[in-house]
Design goal:
With 237 residues, the protein is mainly beta. It has four helices and 19 strands. Strands 1, 2, 5, 6, 8, 15, 16, 17 and 19 form a nine-stranded mixed beta sheet that branches.
């Protein structure tokens, strides 16, 4: 199985200057990068390769994760022993693939931080093959209904097919910027549910970013970043 690439962005605030280190990490589906610093787990997700221009225009790197069988799929990222920080930033690219039916079949997604739901909702196909589903269904931020145009405004590409594929760049969602967080542990979970498998419908994910806004530059983290960077460079060859 090929490796899924995730972008991790660490924002280190040093006095009035922000030092930003962007790492492109290739990790196994259930691998651990650095003990006690970052771990990840994936459930009911498989890697798919699509290097079409439309996907690349939408921000996909060619290889991405998608839901596979019916039911709930998820990815979880865990940080431990974090230095003092004030907030985090999140972002990722999400695709609605095939006949996803959020209003009819409750095909939905959600993002939680330490168990608290930040966003939730569903992405539909619009009008196709005599059926209709809203492009965005029941979108909520922290459990409160929000304007669906917030999501549709992030659409980065559309792939034409029988049911079509909408791609959204959730790095542009304001709700993901400056999420209050001070604990020395952090757990981020992205999940999606469909009532049919990939042959009919799926959600796809790529370029997940997790930014930690530190109060000051933590020396321990800088040391920890070195083996992570080495790992990225080796696996990126």
């Amino acid at each position: 199985m090929k490796l899924f690439r995730i972008v991790l962005t660490f924002c280190l605030s040093i006095f009035a200057t922000t030092l930003q280190a962007s790492l492109i990490n290739a990790i196994d589906a259930d691998g651990t990068l650095v003990s006690n610093v970052f771990s990840s787990s994936f459930s009911n997700l498989v890697e798919t390769t699509d290097s079409s221009t439309a996907y690349q225009t939408g921000g996909f790197s060619g290889s991405y994760l998608r839901t596979d069988a019916s039911g709930t799929s998820s990815m979880t990222f865990v940080f431990q022993n974090l230095a003092a920080h004030s907030s985090i930033n999140l972002g990722f690219i999400i695709a609605r693939i095939g006949s996803v039916d959020p209003s009819r079949d409750d095909d939905v997604f959600s993002v939680t931080v330490d168990g608290v739901e930040v966003i939730s909702g569903g992405l539909g196909f619009g009008n196709a093959n005599g059926f209709s589903e809203p492009l965005v269904h029941d979108y909520k931020e922290y459990g409160v209904t929000a304007n669906s145009s917030i999501v549709t405004a992030t659409q980065s590409a559309y792939v034409s097919s029988t049911w079509g594929t909408h791609i959204y760049d959730f790095n542009d969602l304001d709700v993901f910027s400056g999420i209050s967080h001070t604990s020395d542990t952090l757990t981020v979970t992205i999940s999606a549910s469909t009532n049919q498998g990939y042959s009919n419908e799926a959600y796809g994910f790529d370029n997940v970013s997790i930014g930690i806004n530190y109060v000051s530059a933590p020396a321990g983290l800088l040391v920890a970043l070195v083996p992570m960077l080495i790992l990225c460079l080796r696996r990126g060859k």
